[in-house]
Amino acid sequence: DKVSPTAAALLDKLNIKPFSFGVVINVVYSDGVCFDPRVLDLSEIDLINKFRAGVNAIAAIGMEVGFPTIASLPHSLTNAFTNMLAITLETEFDFPQASAYITAVTSAAAAAPAGGAAAGGAPAADAAPEPSSSSSAGGAAADLFGGSGSSSDDSSS
Known about the structure:
About 55% of the residues lie in helices and about 5% in strands. The chain is mainly α. It has a two-stranded antiparallel ribbon. The longest helix has 22 residues, at about 45-65. It is elongated. The N and C termini lie far apart (about 85 Å).
């Protein structure tokens, strides 16, 4: 509202200066729940990040309990392909997608410069030998917890 000239003259005689007023939000109340006023300051990026975190949590829970959800479907398919690829590498079984993937990986590895050749002149294959198939069953994973990977250590306790 505008102040009329007569009201302005009166306020000036009373020595009342112009002022401003507003509402300070202390608490936001919605559906029986009280929120901090910072909730109102969320940007669109913040909302998207919170939504993604929720979807990731749903996917993680679904994967852990073995309950398929829309959020866990891409992870389930990736894990299934990885398992089928492992079977392909260890057996005679083959399927077109595995062959295409293996071809792509070997051609990319051949095209990339060897890390050891650039640094010391030795090829990278000599620097890091491939693990044997006997240790791929879990020997390295068992060493993470101090065990030797054999079942005889577990039976003593």
